[in-house]
User: Which sequence fits this backbone?
């Protein structure tokens, strides 16, 4: 059994960095952690895609710090809840998936978080669970009992439901079950803490209500900061919107993805997605030009997932292609689909963060195939493009393969 560490400095670091809110209070959680009691903390992630992004990394970095203090850490994979689809931040209901589709998405997840969390630590390993194991066994009587703890009015407090009502868009009945099922995860796991982003606060509070009802136990809700552009308020990373920098990207793609972030995102990305001390981050931001600071940020992020040697190589690759405007020798190949639009291909290969982003790059004359500028967003790839090089701006190059 691992020993619980109550070092106040380390506890304060956990409670102060990348934290949006702690419920009921930060002080109560600190008191609990200082007491030496072993706590069970979990984070749930729905398997709606095969890749995790830097926004997820924030949570796993903090979880590893809890684990290093000796607490029990649980990774919950929402192989049941992802089939319902969390309505958070969605203007329409999410398309339901089969369990086979969901399970297939989880195959690479653990490999992606291994650089952040010592999953198989011999003294204090991570517990990995799937909520299909208990949610699929609930009877209709169980579900009615769970639902009886909440009113329709409370469910409609969720921003996205309110927005849909105003816009006359439908709210499907099954979407109300999502927070109930996620909330019941807390009961089944008998946790002390749930970690989530601010977009999951409502669901986590449902779990707090259910845990109090069924086990008379208080649960802390540890809400991490969402990666958002401070100017626009838009999410920087989103699985459903296919935007951001993903943990399974190769070094060059990851480095370029970080470098493509707006300057205003640099500080939060340093704080939330790197392992550097805050005083080191402050010095970088104070002393370096934005481009140099961003280069250091990209290097630190790639180093976490691919090692220092590959991070340096990715940095050299970027400098050569961007500063010297050269076409690199080791261009990545990416398979195109028959009849695929240029917009879809740019998103799939990592040349654009979204279709809207791809559209803007084409309209700004920033996309070329074998040095010929793509003039229209309606361009469809064909076998005539086979083995040609597509480049976006001065730094992103991919060879098209059919």
Assistant:
């Amino acid at each position: 059994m691992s020993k619980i560490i109550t070092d106040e400095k380390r506890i304060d670091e956990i409670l102060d960095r990348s934290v949006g809110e702690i419920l009921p209070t930060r002080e109560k959680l600190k008191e609990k952690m200082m007491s030496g009691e072993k706590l069970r903390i979990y984070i749930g992630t729905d398997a709606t895609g095969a890749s995790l992004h830097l926004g997820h990394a924030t949570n796993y970095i903090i979880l590893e710090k809890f684990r290093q203090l000796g607490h029990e850490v649980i990774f919950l994979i929402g192989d049941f809840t992802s089939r319902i689809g969390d309505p958070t931040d969605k203007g329409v209901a999410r398309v339901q998936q089969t369990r086979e589709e969901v399970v297939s998405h989880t195959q690479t997840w653990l490999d992606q978080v291994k650089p952040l969390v010592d999953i198989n630590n011999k003294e204090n390993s991570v517990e990995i669970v799937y909520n299909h194991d208990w949610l699929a066994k609930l009877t209709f009587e169980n579900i009615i009992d769970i639902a009886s703890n909440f009113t329709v009015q409370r469910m409609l407090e969720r921003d996205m439901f309110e927005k849909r009502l105003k816009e006359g868009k439908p709210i499907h009945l099954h979407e109300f079950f999502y927070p109930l099922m996620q909330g019941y995860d807390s009961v089944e796991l008998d946790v002390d803490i749930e970690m989530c982003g601010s977009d999951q606060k409502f669901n986590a509070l449902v779990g707090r209500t259910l845990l109090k009802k069924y086990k008379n136990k208080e649960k802390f809700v540890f809400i991490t900061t969402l990666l958002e552009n401070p100017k626009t308020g838009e999410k920087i990373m989103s699985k459903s919107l296919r935007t951001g920098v993903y943990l399974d990207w190769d070094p060059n793609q990851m480095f370029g993805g970080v470098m493509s972030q707006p300057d205003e995102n640099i500080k939060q990305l340093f704080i939330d997605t790197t392992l550097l001390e805050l005083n080191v981050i402050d010095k970088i931001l104070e002393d370096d030009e934005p481009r140099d600071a961003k280069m250091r940020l990209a290097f630190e992020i790639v180093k976490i997932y691919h090692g220092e040697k590959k991070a340096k190589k990715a940095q050299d690759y970027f400098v050569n292609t961007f500063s010297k405007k050269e076409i690199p020798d080791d261009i990545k190949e990416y398979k195109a689909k028959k009849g695929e639009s240029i917009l879809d291909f740019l998103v799939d290969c990592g040349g654009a963060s979204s279709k809207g982003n791809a559209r803007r790059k084409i309209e700004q004359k920033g996309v070329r195939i074998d040095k010929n500028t793509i003039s229209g967003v309606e361009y469809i790839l064909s076998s005539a493009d086979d083995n040609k090089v597509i480049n976006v701006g001065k730094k992103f190059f991919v060879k098209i393969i059919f």
